[in-house]
Design a protein that fits this description.
Layout lengths: L1 H28 L2 H17 L1 H7 L2 H19 L18 H16 L2 H12 L4 H8 L3 H19 L3 H4 L3
Helix pairs in contact: 1-2, 1-4, 1-6, 2-4, 4-6, 4-7, 6-8, 7-8
Length: 169
């Protein structure tokens, strides 16, 4: 009986969060197929520890941490290649100016080293604190701060944008 409840709880969580995890994975890797693979790997690892995680509390934070670590681990192993696409293949209809801005930002984000990209996605897309990001990436808060600053500076250079328009804060 407990196993059935556990299965149902995990299934409900996975169904509710899969799209959000996939969007975050896409921002990390820039490829929808790779994002799906990252998401599936994240959900498998999450399932393996589900009993402990759901008792401990913040399942969403744990899932995002797993996703980020899986991305970084795969990049280190270089078992995949990024391939930029002309247009985002799926998503919600967006106003043309907003769509253009999103494509420009995504393209610039893909130019950043994976570590900077991971920090920026967690800090500004996921709206995590410096401490949460540091814990997820297994680095010091100072490293998160410096990589955030360097990543944002590089984005500004790539976009030719004044600093206040890229910070997002």
């Amino acid at each position: 009986m407990r196993e059935a409840v556990r299965e149902r709880e995990f299934r409900e969580f996975a169904e509710a969060r899969q799209a959000g995890l996939r969007r975050s994975a896409y921002l990390l890797c820039g490829d929808w197929h790779q994002a799906q693979d990252l998401t599936q790997t994240t959900l498998m690892k999450l399932y393996a520890a589900w009993g402990r995680i759901r008792r401990d509390g913040n399942v969403d934070a744990y899932a995002r941490t797993i996703l980020t670590r899986v991305f970084i681990d795969q990049y280190r192993r270089r078992t995949w290649r990024e391939e930029l696409v002309e247009a985002v293949p799926e998503g919600h209809p967006v106003a043309p100016a907003t769509l253009e801005l999103r494509l420009v930002m995504r393209s610039a984000l893909m130019e950043l080293p994976p570590r900077y990209r991971a920090v920026l996605v967690l800090r500004f897309w996921e709206d995590w604190s410096v401490e949460q990001t540091a814990e997820a990436l297994r680095v010091s808060p100072g490293t998160v701060k410096s990589q955030s600053a360097r990543g944002l500076r590089r984005l500004r250079e790539l976009l030719g944008t004044p600093a206040h328009e890229v910070n997002g804060r």
